[in-house]
Design brief:
The protein has about 140 residues and is mostly beta strands. The protein is about 10% helix and about 45% strand.
């Protein structure tokens, strides 16, 4: 029995030391937990931070990153809108490399009360994201 344990630990160590690339790790946070509608919308401040160990491509039109705004209703998340995914003909999609330890700040607008979260899509194509990072939940009143 004691001989099997070192062999098992050795196999696990070999599997853990593979040559796969490191995972993309983004942290998405809002500047507050609650917002108030002013006129027709609430302006939500967002920060995306690369907490991984390699650069991450973020794209969007006219500015990155691709962001999906989700609204909580009846216990489920529903897509409410997006930022940077649909590109008008006068603009082009822009891609940046967010390096490890760096941040990107931007804003999105929300137009009705409720509980929200954001999904930030990494990569150059929102239909085939390299990774998806989900923000904290926030309220709009």
């Amino acid at each position: 029995m004691t001989r099997k344990l070192p062999a098992l630990v050795g196999c696990l160590a070999i599997l853990a030391c593979g040559t796969a690339e490191p995972d993309i790790r983004l942290m998405v946070t809002t500047d507050r937990d609650s917002y108030t509608l002013i006129g027709a919308h609430a302006n939500v401040g967002i920060t995306v931070e690369n907490v991984g160990d390699r650069g991450v491509a973020l794209s969007g039109c006219p500015q990155p990153p691709f962001t999906v705004i989700e609204y909580r209703s009846h216990g489920r998340w529903h897509e409410e809108g997006s930022h940077g995914i649909i590109c008008q003909a006068i603009y082009t999609t822009r891609t940046i490399a967010l390096q490890p330890g760096t941040r990107l700040a931007y804003n999105v607008s929300v137009s009705r009360p409720g509980r929200y979260r954001l999904r930030v899509l990494a990569g150059v194509d929102p239909a085939h994201a390299d990774a998806v990072a989900v923000s904290n939940e926030f309220m709009v009143e």
